[in-house]
Amino acid sequence: MQVNSLVDTVHDVQDLLWVDKVAGALQTGRLCPWVSTFHPDKLPCQVDGSFYNGAYNAGLKVVFSDGTAWMVRFPRGGMVSTEHADEKVAMEVTALTLIRDKTTIPVPKVQAWGLAASNLLGLGPFIMMDFIEGVSLSKILNDPTAEKPTRLMREDISDKDIILTGLAVCHGRGAEAQSPVRPLTYKAHNILHVGGVDTFGDRSQGFATTTEYFQHVFGQDWKQLVQQPNSVFGLYDGKNNYKEFKRLQVLIPDLVNAKYNSCKFKLICDDLGLANLIVRSEEDLTVVGVVDLEWSYIGPAQLFGSPWWLLQDRPINPEWDCHLGDDPPKMAPRYFKYLEIFLRILEEEEAKMPGNEERELSSLIKWSQDSGAMWLHMILSNGFNDHRTFPFTHLRQHFGDDAWVKRTVDFSNSEEPEAFAVQKLSELDKHDKAVDKLEADKALVDSGDMKKEDFIARYLVDSDLTSLCSPFAVKTEIKNDEVLSEEVAV
Protein backbone atom coordinates (compact mmCIF):
# COMPACT_ATOMS: atom_id res chain seq x y z
CA MET A 1 0.00 0.00 0.00
CA GLN A 2 1.33 3.41 -0.90
CA VAL A 3 1.55 6.43 1.37
CA ASN A 4 -1.11 9.13 1.13
CA SER A 5 0.62 11.84 -0.91
CA LEU A 6 -1.88 14.43 0.30
CA VAL A 7 -0.35 14.28 3.78
CA ASP A 8 3.12 12.90 3.05
CA THR A 9 4.09 15.76 0.73
CA VAL A 10 2.97 18.33 3.29
CA HIS A 11 5.09 16.65 5.94
CA ASP A 12 8.09 16.69 3.58
CA VAL A 13 7.75 20.47 3.38
CA GLN A 14 7.40 20.65 7.18
CA ASP A 15 10.65 18.71 7.44
CA LEU A 16 12.39 21.20 5.13
CA LEU A 17 11.11 24.05 7.27
CA TRP A 18 12.40 22.34 10.41
CA VAL A 19 15.82 21.81 8.78
CA ASP A 20 15.90 25.55 8.06
CA LYS A 21 15.33 26.21 11.78
CA VAL A 22 18.13 23.85 12.78
CA ALA A 23 20.47 25.46 10.26
CA GLY A 24 19.54 28.85 11.69
CA ALA A 25 20.34 27.72 15.23
CA LEU A 26 23.74 26.48 14.04
CA GLN A 27 24.59 29.50 11.90
CA THR A 28 23.71 31.99 14.63
CA GLY A 29 25.74 30.05 17.18
CA ARG A 30 22.78 29.37 19.49
CA LEU A 31 22.79 25.56 19.54
CA CYS A 32 26.04 24.83 21.39
CA PRO A 33 25.48 27.40 24.18
CA TRP A 34 22.01 25.91 24.67
CA VAL A 35 23.46 22.39 24.94
CA SER A 36 26.04 23.62 27.45
CA THR A 37 23.28 24.72 29.83
CA PHE A 38 22.52 21.01 30.38
CA HIS A 39 26.10 20.03 31.23
CA PRO A 40 26.56 19.66 35.02
CA ASP A 41 29.55 22.03 34.87
CA LYS A 42 28.16 24.18 32.05
CA LEU A 43 31.23 23.43 29.91
CA PRO A 44 31.41 24.91 26.40
CA CYS A 45 31.03 22.52 23.47
CA GLN A 46 31.29 22.41 19.71
CA VAL A 47 29.67 20.34 16.97
CA ASP A 48 31.82 17.50 15.69
CA GLY A 49 30.91 16.38 12.17
CA SER A 50 27.65 16.55 10.28
CA PHE A 51 24.12 15.38 11.06
CA TYR A 52 23.29 11.76 11.84
CA ASN A 53 20.05 11.51 9.90
CA GLY A 54 17.51 8.73 10.28
CA ALA A 55 13.96 8.29 9.07
CA TYR A 56 12.55 9.95 12.20
CA ASN A 57 15.44 11.64 13.99
CA ALA A 58 18.36 13.97 13.36
CA GLY A 59 21.32 14.04 15.71
CA LEU A 60 24.54 15.93 16.22
CA LYS A 61 27.69 14.89 18.04
CA VAL A 62 28.92 17.62 20.36
CA VAL A 63 32.25 17.54 22.19
CA PHE A 64 32.80 19.46 25.42
CA SER A 65 36.01 21.18 26.46
CA ASP A 66 36.92 18.22 28.70
CA GLY A 67 36.71 15.80 25.75
CA THR A 68 33.42 14.12 26.66
CA ALA A 69 30.95 13.69 23.80
CA TRP A 70 27.16 13.70 23.68
CA MET A 71 24.65 12.86 21.00
CA VAL A 72 22.01 15.61 20.80
CA ARG A 73 18.99 14.19 19.00
CA PHE A 74 15.66 15.61 17.87
CA PRO A 75 12.62 14.02 16.24
CA ARG A 76 12.58 15.46 12.74
CA GLY A 77 9.85 18.02 12.23
CA GLY A 78 7.50 16.70 9.56
CA MET A 79 8.71 13.11 9.93
CA VAL A 80 7.19 12.69 13.40
CA SER A 81 3.66 13.77 14.27
CA THR A 82 3.78 17.02 16.25
CA GLU A 83 0.98 15.69 18.42
CA HIS A 84 3.01 12.62 19.41
CA ALA A 85 6.62 13.86 19.33
CA ASP A 86 6.79 14.52 23.09
CA GLU A 87 5.42 11.08 23.87
CA LYS A 88 7.85 9.41 21.46
CA VAL A 89 10.83 10.97 23.22
CA ALA A 90 9.47 10.22 26.70
CA MET A 91 8.92 6.57 25.72
CA GLU A 92 12.51 6.19 24.54
CA VAL A 93 13.93 7.85 27.66
CA THR A 94 11.86 5.48 29.82
CA ALA A 95 13.11 2.44 27.88
CA LEU A 96 16.76 3.53 28.04
CA THR A 97 16.52 4.23 31.76
CA LEU A 98 14.79 0.93 32.47
CA ILE A 99 17.34 -1.14 30.54
CA ARG A 100 20.30 0.75 31.99
CA ASP A 101 19.03 0.38 35.57
CA LYS A 102 17.98 -3.28 35.40
CA THR A 103 20.39 -4.93 32.94
CA THR A 104 23.98 -4.85 31.77
CA ILE A 105 22.98 -4.16 28.17
CA PRO A 106 25.16 -1.23 27.03
CA VAL A 107 22.64 1.51 26.26
CA PRO A 108 23.75 5.16 26.36
CA LYS A 109 23.23 7.18 29.52
CA VAL A 110 20.63 9.92 29.11
CA GLN A 111 22.24 13.16 30.28
CA ALA A 112 19.23 15.41 29.66
CA TRP A 113 15.95 15.44 27.82
CA GLY A 114 12.95 17.68 27.45
CA LEU A 115 9.58 18.21 25.82
CA ALA A 116 8.96 20.61 22.97
CA ALA A 117 7.70 23.39 25.26
CA SER A 118 11.02 23.43 27.14
CA ASN A 119 13.20 23.76 24.00
CA LEU A 120 14.26 27.41 23.83
CA LEU A 121 15.44 26.90 20.23
CA GLY A 122 11.96 25.88 19.08
CA LEU A 123 13.25 22.62 17.58
CA GLY A 124 10.89 20.27 19.41
CA PRO A 125 11.56 17.64 22.09
CA PHE A 126 15.11 16.37 22.51
CA ILE A 127 17.40 13.78 24.09
CA MET A 128 21.01 14.37 25.06
CA MET A 129 22.92 11.15 25.76
CA ASP A 130 26.44 9.78 25.83
CA PHE A 131 27.90 9.40 22.35
CA ILE A 132 28.98 5.80 21.71
CA GLU A 133 31.96 5.47 19.39
CA GLY A 134 31.89 2.55 17.00
CA VAL A 135 30.40 1.17 13.80
CA SER A 136 26.78 0.24 13.11
CA LEU A 137 26.48 -3.51 12.68
CA SER A 138 24.16 -3.05 9.70
CA LYS A 139 27.05 -1.54 7.75
CA ILE A 140 29.12 -4.66 8.33
CA LEU A 141 26.57 -7.45 7.97
CA ASN A 142 24.70 -6.15 4.94
CA ASP A 143 26.08 -8.55 2.34
CA PRO A 144 23.40 -11.16 1.53
CA THR A 145 25.98 -13.30 -0.30
CA ALA A 146 28.39 -13.53 2.65
CA GLU A 147 29.95 -16.99 2.76
CA LYS A 148 30.64 -16.94 6.50
CA PRO A 149 27.87 -15.27 8.50
CA THR A 150 29.26 -13.89 11.75
CA ARG A 151 28.40 -15.28 15.15
CA LEU A 152 27.91 -12.25 17.38
CA MET A 153 27.44 -12.39 21.16
CA ARG A 154 28.54 -10.12 24.00
CA GLU A 155 30.19 -12.43 26.52
CA ASP A 156 30.02 -9.92 29.41
CA ILE A 157 26.23 -9.52 29.45
CA SER A 158 24.63 -11.54 32.19
CA ASP A 159 22.54 -14.56 31.21
CA LYS A 160 19.30 -12.93 32.34
CA ASP A 161 19.87 -10.03 29.96
CA ILE A 162 20.44 -12.03 26.77
CA ILE A 163 16.71 -12.48 26.28
CA LEU A 164 14.76 -9.27 26.74
CA THR A 165 11.62 -11.25 27.40
CA GLY A 166 13.00 -11.53 30.91
CA LEU A 167 11.85 -7.96 31.46
CA ALA A 168 8.27 -8.02 32.71
CA VAL A 169 7.03 -4.46 33.12
CA CYS A 170 3.63 -3.18 34.17
CA HIS A 171 2.57 -0.36 31.87
CA GLY A 172 1.34 2.91 33.35
CA ARG A 173 3.34 2.91 36.59
CA GLY A 174 6.14 5.11 37.85
CA ALA A 175 7.81 7.11 35.08
CA GLU A 176 5.22 5.89 32.56
CA ALA A 177 2.19 7.03 34.54
CA GLN A 178 1.51 10.01 32.30
CA SER A 179 1.53 7.96 29.09
CA PRO A 180 -1.73 6.63 27.62
CA VAL A 181 -2.38 2.95 28.27
CA ARG A 182 -2.48 2.14 24.56
CA PRO A 183 1.04 2.52 23.19
CA LEU A 184 2.39 4.84 20.55
CA THR A 185 3.56 2.16 18.14
CA TYR A 186 5.57 2.54 14.96
CA LYS A 187 2.59 1.19 13.06
CA ALA A 188 -0.15 3.43 14.46
CA HIS A 189 2.05 6.50 14.10
CA ASN A 190 2.89 5.77 10.46
CA ILE A 191 -0.69 5.04 9.49
CA LEU A 192 -1.63 8.41 10.95
CA HIS A 193 1.32 10.44 9.75
CA VAL A 194 1.79 9.25 6.17
CA GLY A 195 -1.55 7.52 5.67
CA GLY A 196 -3.75 10.23 7.16
CA VAL A 197 -5.86 7.77 9.19
CA ASP A 198 -6.14 7.86 12.99
CA THR A 199 -6.32 4.26 14.22
CA PHE A 200 -5.42 4.75 17.89
CA GLY A 201 -8.94 4.47 19.26
CA ASP A 202 -9.57 5.12 22.96
CA ARG A 203 -6.04 5.20 24.36
CA SER A 204 -7.27 5.05 27.93
CA GLN A 205 -8.35 1.44 27.37
CA GLY A 206 -5.80 -1.34 27.74
CA PHE A 207 -5.74 -5.00 26.73
CA ALA A 208 -6.18 -8.02 28.98
CA THR A 209 -4.94 -10.63 26.50
CA THR A 210 -2.76 -11.06 23.45
CA THR A 211 -5.88 -11.93 21.45
CA GLU A 212 -7.46 -8.57 22.30
CA TYR A 213 -4.29 -6.76 21.32
CA PHE A 214 -3.91 -8.61 18.01
CA GLN A 215 -7.54 -8.00 17.09
CA HIS A 216 -7.18 -4.32 17.90
CA VAL A 217 -4.07 -4.02 15.72
CA PHE A 218 -5.79 -5.87 12.90
CA GLY A 219 -8.53 -3.26 13.22
CA GLN A 220 -5.89 -0.61 12.50
CA ASP A 221 -5.05 -2.32 9.20
CA TRP A 222 -8.71 -2.63 8.29
CA LYS A 223 -9.46 0.99 9.13
CA GLN A 224 -6.50 2.14 7.03
CA LEU A 225 -7.68 0.05 4.10
CA VAL A 226 -11.14 1.59 4.33
CA GLN A 227 -10.29 5.20 5.15
CA GLN A 228 -7.09 5.95 3.26
CA PRO A 229 -8.28 7.24 -0.14
CA ASN A 230 -5.48 5.63 -2.15
CA SER A 231 -5.27 2.32 -0.26
CA VAL A 232 -5.94 0.36 -3.48
CA PHE A 233 -4.86 1.04 -7.06
CA GLY A 234 -7.43 -0.88 -9.10
CA LEU A 235 -10.64 -2.90 -9.06
CA TYR A 236 -8.86 -6.26 -8.84
CA ASP A 237 -6.56 -5.00 -6.11
CA GLY A 238 -9.47 -3.57 -4.11
CA LYS A 239 -11.48 -6.80 -4.23
CA ASN A 240 -8.52 -8.96 -3.25
CA ASN A 241 -7.51 -6.74 -0.37
CA TYR A 242 -11.07 -6.81 0.97
CA LYS A 243 -11.20 -10.61 0.80
CA GLU A 244 -7.72 -11.25 2.21
CA PHE A 245 -8.13 -8.92 5.17
CA LYS A 246 -11.47 -10.50 6.04
CA ARG A 247 -9.85 -13.93 5.91
CA LEU A 248 -6.96 -12.77 8.07
CA GLN A 249 -9.40 -11.52 10.70
CA VAL A 250 -10.93 -14.98 11.03
CA LEU A 251 -7.51 -16.64 11.44
CA ILE A 252 -6.14 -14.44 14.23
CA PRO A 253 -7.48 -16.47 17.21
CA ASP A 254 -5.91 -19.64 15.79
CA LEU A 255 -2.50 -17.92 15.66
CA VAL A 256 -2.37 -16.90 19.31
CA ASN A 257 -0.17 -19.10 21.51
CA ALA A 258 -2.25 -20.11 24.55
CA LYS A 259 0.84 -19.93 26.78
CA TYR A 260 1.29 -16.22 26.00
CA ASN A 261 -2.34 -15.15 25.70
CA SER A 262 -2.78 -14.02 29.31
CA CYS A 263 0.79 -13.58 30.53
CA LYS A 264 2.41 -10.26 31.38
CA PHE A 265 3.23 -8.00 28.47
CA LYS A 266 6.92 -7.29 27.83
CA LEU A 267 9.20 -4.53 26.62
CA ILE A 268 8.87 -4.29 22.83
CA CYS A 269 10.86 -2.12 20.42
CA ASP A 270 9.29 -1.84 16.97
CA ASP A 271 12.48 -0.50 15.41
CA LEU A 272 15.15 -2.75 16.90
CA GLY A 273 17.45 -4.23 14.27
CA LEU A 274 21.09 -4.53 13.25
CA ALA A 275 21.39 -0.76 12.82
CA ASN A 276 20.76 -0.36 16.56
CA LEU A 277 23.85 -2.38 17.48
CA ILE A 278 27.17 -0.51 17.66
CA VAL A 279 30.34 -2.60 17.55
CA ARG A 280 33.86 -1.42 18.35
CA SER A 281 35.17 -1.66 14.77
CA GLU A 282 34.89 -3.67 11.58
CA GLU A 283 37.60 -5.96 12.92
CA ASP A 284 36.47 -6.09 16.57
CA LEU A 285 32.79 -7.04 16.69
CA THR A 286 32.39 -6.48 20.41
CA VAL A 287 29.00 -4.85 20.97
CA VAL A 288 29.64 -1.53 22.74
CA GLY A 289 26.20 0.01 22.43
CA VAL A 290 22.51 -0.54 21.74
CA VAL A 291 21.02 2.74 20.55
CA ASP A 292 17.91 4.38 19.11
CA LEU A 293 15.25 2.58 21.12
CA GLU A 294 12.41 4.70 19.78
CA TRP A 295 8.97 3.12 19.35
CA SER A 296 9.45 1.16 22.60
CA TYR A 297 6.39 0.14 24.57
CA ILE A 298 4.81 -2.67 26.54
CA GLY A 299 3.25 -5.33 24.30
CA PRO A 300 2.54 -9.07 23.93
CA ALA A 301 5.57 -11.30 24.47
CA GLN A 302 4.42 -13.45 21.56
CA LEU A 303 5.72 -10.75 19.19
CA PHE A 304 9.25 -11.92 20.03
CA GLY A 305 8.46 -14.98 17.93
CA SER A 306 9.23 -13.20 14.66
CA PRO A 307 12.82 -11.95 14.29
CA TRP A 308 11.89 -9.85 11.25
CA TRP A 309 15.09 -7.82 11.63
CA LEU A 310 16.93 -10.71 9.96
CA LEU A 311 15.44 -9.33 6.74
CA GLN A 312 17.55 -6.18 7.31
CA ASP A 313 14.56 -4.16 6.14
CA ARG A 314 10.87 -3.77 6.88
CA PRO A 315 8.81 -6.83 5.83
CA ILE A 316 6.56 -4.57 3.72
CA ASN A 317 9.34 -3.54 1.34
CA PRO A 318 7.39 -3.16 -1.95
CA GLU A 319 10.27 -4.72 -3.89
CA TRP A 320 9.33 -8.02 -2.21
CA ASP A 321 5.64 -7.90 -3.14
CA CYS A 322 4.13 -10.98 -4.78
CA HIS A 323 0.96 -11.22 -6.82
CA LEU A 324 -1.30 -14.23 -6.33
CA GLY A 325 0.38 -17.29 -7.82
CA ASP A 326 3.86 -15.71 -8.05
CA ASP A 327 6.94 -17.33 -6.57
CA PRO A 328 8.26 -15.73 -3.37
CA PRO A 329 10.96 -13.03 -3.78
CA LYS A 330 14.60 -14.05 -4.08
CA MET A 331 15.40 -12.71 -0.64
CA ALA A 332 13.11 -15.29 1.01
CA PRO A 333 15.76 -18.09 1.01
CA ARG A 334 18.21 -15.63 2.56
CA TYR A 335 15.80 -14.92 5.40
CA PHE A 336 15.26 -18.62 6.13
CA LYS A 337 19.01 -19.21 6.02
CA TYR A 338 19.63 -16.44 8.56
CA LEU A 339 16.73 -17.68 10.68
CA GLU A 340 18.23 -21.17 10.86
CA ILE A 341 21.60 -19.74 11.91
CA PHE A 342 20.00 -17.46 14.49
CA LEU A 343 17.96 -20.28 16.01
CA ARG A 344 20.94 -22.62 16.19
CA ILE A 345 23.12 -20.08 17.97
CA LEU A 346 20.26 -19.00 20.23
CA GLU A 347 19.68 -22.59 21.34
CA GLU A 348 23.38 -23.00 22.09
CA GLU A 349 23.33 -19.91 24.27
CA GLU A 350 20.09 -20.90 25.98
CA ALA A 351 21.62 -24.27 26.88
CA LYS A 352 24.29 -22.42 28.90
CA MET A 353 21.70 -20.55 30.97
CA PRO A 354 20.80 -22.22 34.29
CA GLY A 355 17.07 -22.65 34.79
CA ASN A 356 16.27 -22.18 31.12
CA GLU A 357 15.63 -25.81 30.24
CA GLU A 358 12.48 -24.84 28.32
CA ARG A 359 14.53 -22.66 25.97
CA GLU A 360 11.63 -20.27 25.94
CA LEU A 361 12.63 -17.84 23.20
CA SER A 362 13.83 -20.41 20.65
CA SER A 363 10.76 -22.54 21.38
CA LEU A 364 8.51 -19.55 20.76
CA ILE A 365 10.22 -18.77 17.46
CA LYS A 366 9.92 -22.40 16.33
CA TRP A 367 6.23 -22.45 17.24
CA SER A 368 5.71 -19.20 15.35
CA GLN A 369 7.39 -20.65 12.28
CA ASP A 370 5.52 -23.96 12.44
CA SER A 371 2.10 -22.39 13.07
CA GLY A 372 2.43 -19.53 10.60
CA ALA A 373 2.12 -16.95 13.38
CA MET A 374 5.53 -15.60 12.40
CA TRP A 375 3.97 -13.97 9.35
CA LEU A 376 1.02 -12.65 11.34
CA HIS A 377 3.43 -10.94 13.75
CA MET A 378 5.15 -9.20 10.84
CA ILE A 379 1.81 -8.00 9.48
CA LEU A 380 0.70 -6.72 12.86
CA SER A 381 3.99 -4.87 13.44
CA ASN A 382 3.73 -2.79 10.26
CA GLY A 383 1.14 -0.63 8.59
CA PHE A 384 0.53 -0.26 4.84
CA ASN A 385 -0.15 -3.95 4.44
CA ASP A 386 -1.90 -5.47 1.48
CA HIS A 387 -2.37 -8.96 0.06
CA ARG A 388 0.87 -8.78 -1.97
CA THR A 389 3.34 -8.04 0.85
CA PHE A 390 6.06 -10.49 1.83
CA PRO A 391 4.48 -11.61 5.14
CA PHE A 392 0.92 -11.74 3.74
CA THR A 393 2.11 -13.88 0.84
CA HIS A 394 3.98 -16.29 3.12
CA LEU A 395 1.06 -16.59 5.54
CA ARG A 396 -1.19 -17.58 2.66
CA GLN A 397 1.41 -20.02 1.33
CA HIS A 398 1.83 -21.52 4.79
CA PHE A 399 -1.79 -22.67 4.78
CA GLY A 400 -1.94 -23.30 1.04
CA ASP A 401 -4.27 -21.36 -1.24
CA ASP A 402 -7.08 -23.93 -1.09
CA ALA A 403 -6.96 -24.36 2.68
CA TRP A 404 -6.65 -20.60 3.13
CA VAL A 405 -9.92 -20.04 1.31
CA LYS A 406 -11.77 -23.03 2.76
CA ARG A 407 -10.98 -22.39 6.42
CA THR A 408 -11.76 -18.68 6.32
CA VAL A 409 -14.46 -16.76 4.43
CA ASP A 410 -16.41 -17.76 1.35
CA PHE A 411 -17.05 -14.79 -0.95
CA SER A 412 -18.44 -16.77 -3.89
CA ASN A 413 -21.93 -15.30 -3.47
CA SER A 414 -21.00 -11.96 -1.93
CA GLU A 415 -21.22 -8.56 -3.61
CA GLU A 416 -19.27 -6.84 -0.82
CA PRO A 417 -15.77 -7.04 -2.38
CA GLU A 418 -17.02 -5.58 -5.69
CA ALA A 419 -18.92 -2.76 -3.98
CA PHE A 420 -15.94 -1.98 -1.78
CA ALA A 421 -13.53 -1.85 -4.73
CA VAL A 422 -15.84 0.40 -6.78
CA GLN A 423 -16.09 2.84 -3.87
CA LYS A 424 -12.32 2.84 -3.40
CA LEU A 425 -11.72 3.61 -7.07
CA SER A 426 -13.97 6.65 -6.75
CA GLU A 427 -11.91 7.81 -3.76
CA LEU A 428 -8.69 7.13 -5.64
CA ASP A 429 -9.81 9.33 -8.51
CA LYS A 430 -10.53 12.21 -6.12
CA HIS A 431 -7.21 11.61 -4.39
CA ASP A 432 -5.23 11.70 -7.65
CA LYS A 433 -6.89 14.96 -8.76
CA ALA A 434 -6.12 16.55 -5.40
CA VAL A 435 -2.52 15.35 -5.63
CA ASP A 436 -2.13 16.98 -9.07
CA LYS A 437 -3.05 20.36 -7.56
CA LEU A 438 -0.85 19.78 -4.54
CA GLU A 439 2.16 18.87 -6.67
CA ALA A 440 1.68 22.00 -8.76
CA ASP A 441 1.87 24.11 -5.60
CA LYS A 442 4.83 22.06 -4.34
CA ALA A 443 6.65 23.00 -7.54
CA LEU A 444 6.10 26.64 -6.60
CA VAL A 445 7.72 25.96 -3.22
CA ASP A 446 10.69 24.29 -4.92
CA SER A 447 11.13 27.27 -7.25
CA GLY A 448 10.84 29.79 -4.42
CA ASP A 449 7.57 31.24 -5.66
CA MET A 450 5.59 30.05 -2.62
CA LYS A 451 6.69 30.13 1.00
CA LYS A 452 6.88 26.82 2.83
CA GLU A 453 4.67 28.24 5.57
CA ASP A 454 1.96 29.20 3.06
CA PHE A 455 2.03 25.74 1.48
CA ILE A 456 1.71 24.04 4.86
CA ALA A 457 -1.12 26.32 5.90
CA ARG A 458 -2.99 25.67 2.65
CA TYR A 459 -2.82 21.89 2.78
CA LEU A 460 -2.44 21.02 6.45
CA VAL A 461 -4.57 23.67 8.10
CA ASP A 462 -7.09 24.89 5.56
CA SER A 463 -7.65 21.75 3.47
CA ASP A 464 -10.37 19.31 4.54
CA LEU A 465 -8.86 15.99 3.51
CA THR A 466 -11.48 14.04 5.43
CA SER A 467 -13.89 14.56 2.53
CA LEU A 468 -12.09 11.74 0.74
CA CYS A 469 -12.93 9.14 3.42
CA SER A 470 -14.98 6.08 2.58
CA PRO A 471 -18.58 5.68 3.81
CA PHE A 472 -18.02 1.95 4.43
CA ALA A 473 -18.39 0.62 7.95
CA VAL A 474 -15.02 0.02 9.58
CA LYS A 475 -14.53 -2.92 11.95
CA THR A 476 -12.09 -1.16 14.25
CA GLU A 477 -12.41 -2.91 17.59
CA ILE A 478 -12.94 -6.49 18.62
CA LYS A 479 -13.74 -7.16 22.27
CA ASN A 480 -15.09 -10.32 23.84
CA ASP A 481 -15.47 -11.87 20.39
CA GLU A 482 -17.76 -9.07 19.24
CA VAL A 483 -16.98 -6.81 16.31
CA LEU A 484 -17.90 -3.19 16.87
CA SER A 485 -18.77 -1.21 13.75
CA GLU A 486 -17.83 2.44 13.38
CA GLU A 487 -19.43 4.39 10.55
CA VAL A 488 -16.92 6.58 8.74
CA ALA A 489 -18.33 9.94 7.80
CA VAL A 490 -18.27 11.02 4.19
Automatic annotation (TrEMBL):
Q: Which InterPro entries match?
A: AGP_Transferase, Kinase-like_dom_sf
What name has this protein been given in UniProt?
Aminoglycoside phosphotransferase domain-containing protein
Instruction: Identify the species of origin.
Output: Talaromyces rugulosus
Q: Organism classification, top ranks? A: Eukaryota, Fungi, Dikarya, Ascomycota, Pezizomycotina
